[in-house]
Specification:
alpha/beta, seven-stranded mixed β-sheet, 14 helices
């Protein structure tokens, strides 16, 4: 049975909640986390981690199939999907077990049940009322259907897509943002016939247009069919398949996955009674320290404005509890948070796209280079990737970085760090990079922006 009072109570144990809890405990707070499902929240149990586990399988399978290009004969290759699901479950269990161990190490108490705000400074869970000096709301998000559709039967969300017990023959994915392209890329490479639909004009529509073009070419090479500027309607789920229409055509698939957006999970939190204000978009209004309109109550992650990313939630959780502890904190520059999409080819970015920079009136300079321009691109077998730097001409300011290709999700951090340390693209251009490495492409893109590209 939980104690009756804590210095800090966090509702939700995802990447925002559990990191906030550990940091609160480090700061000397008596801390508890309330979780209605499994430790680690949706990210570790149903979304981010299961997704990357299956994507990694698709990556390995692709590498084995392409081994002949490197002079390696492997014979016939078979996919053991039961083994794939077993490894996915093992990865999830390992990481969620790690979070539980961190709770024990830091003396964070885990309370099972659904938490809600009560009178000022109180939380209810399982019919019990708990007093807390600080409350952090970290319940994340829930799947959201597209207009005219509802979940059920063969119509599923992203969480269910990553947890399929059997490998389907066909799949339709609605939404070509980060989640949709990851699902499509994974299952297409595992041998599923995939159709990917996007209502806007290109895949990954929030990424830089040049990046989207490279991604679309890469996805098509995996055998999937892509329909942009296309709405999916008249979705009907039957016992063994789902039918739908798109434009003047009709389609059928074993599963239809809706990956077109999510909504804040706030229904059970009792926000109105506690005096927590929502914005017009349905998110919780917070200030730069993640404080809500209710005294002592903070909100983080997918509940508030900003990109719906696990690492964003984690940093917000740290800021929230440090503010509650009386430490000096600083608001997050959300535009500078790295964004990562683990489809093949990998995509990573931060800051402004070229179009956004021009719209905001900057004197824009662009540096672009293909991976094939540096030695590592040829050595490691990826010549089609690209690094694009968006900068401001007069002062050399780094406005945005956009990378598509192998290891893009790792390479982007150099540009993020440069921006955070108030460096610009001329500094990146002058830094000595190891050879032969993919990171040399980042250096060459910076040189291109600075007007003195060497390899290209």
């Amino acid at each position: 049975m939980p104690d009756s009072s804590y210095d800090c109570v966090i509702i939700g144990s995802g990447p925002g909640g559990y990191v906030a809890a550990i940091r609160a405990a480090q700061l000397g707070m008596k801390t508890a986390v309330i979780e209605k499902d499994k430790v680690g929240g949706r990210c570790l149990n149903y979304a981010c981690i299961p997704a990357k586990a299956i994507l990694r399988v698709a990556d390995v399978l692709s590498e084995v199939r392409d081994a002949g290009e490197f002079g390696i004969s492997v014979g016939s290759v078979e996919l053991d999907y039961a083994g794939v699901t077993a490894r996915r479950e093992k990865v999830v269990a390992t990481l969620t077990g790690g979070v539980s161990s961190l709770f024990k190490k830091n003396r964070v108490e885990l309370i099972e049940g659904e938490g809600a705000l009560a009178a000022a400074g109180n939380v209810t869970v399982g019919g019990q009322t708990i007093a807390a000096k600080t409350i952090v709301l970290a319940t994340g998000s829930v799947k959201r259907a597209i207009p005219g559709a509802e979940f059920g039967g063969r119509v599923i969300g992203t969480e269910e897509a990553w947890a399929l017990s059997d490998l389907p023959a066909t799949m339709a994915v609605v939404g070509a943002g980060a989640s949709g392209t990851e699902i499509a890329s994974a299952y297409a490479r595992l041998g599923v016939e995939v159709r990917l639909f996007e209502a806007l004009e290109r895949v990954l529509p929030t990424e830089d247009a040049d990046i989207s073009k490279v991604v679309e070419r890469g996805l098509k090479r995996q055998g999937m069919t892509i329909h942009t500027n296309t709405l999916v309607k008249n979705i009907e789920s039957a016992a063994a398949s789902v039918t739908f229409t798109y434009g003047d055509a009709s389609g059928e698939a074993d599963w239809l996955v809706i990956a077109a957006g999510r909504g804040a999970d706030i229904e059970a939190l009792g926000l109105e009674a506690a005096g927590v204000t929502l914005s017009a978009s349905g998110l919780i209004e917070v200030d730069g320290a993640l404080r809500t309109s209710a005294a002592g109550v903070y909100a983080i992650g997918d509940l508030v404005l900003g990109p719906a990313l696990a690492h964003k939630a984690s940093d917000e959780g740290i800021i929230a509890v440090e503010d509650a502890a009386g430490l000096e904190t600083h608001p997050i520059e959300y535009v500078d948070i790295p964004r990562a999409t683990f489809c093949t080819p990998n995509v990573a970015s931060f800051g402004l796209t070229e179009a956004q920079a021009r719209e905001q009136g900057f004197d824009v300079v662009v540096g672009k280079i293909q991976y094939g321009a540096v030695g590592a691109g040829t050595v490691y077998g990826d010549r089609t990737g690209m690094v694009k730097i968006v900068g401001e001409r007069k002062y050399g300011e780094l406005l945005g970085g956009h990378i598509v290709g192998a290891k893009a999700t790792e390479l982007i951090q150099e540009l993020v760090n440069t921006r955070a340390l108030e460096g610009g693209y001329p500094e990146v251009a002058r830094l000595i990079h190891g050879h032969p490495t993919m990171s040399e492409a980042v250096m060459e893109a910076a040189r291109a922006a600075d007007g003195w590209l060497i390899h290209g």
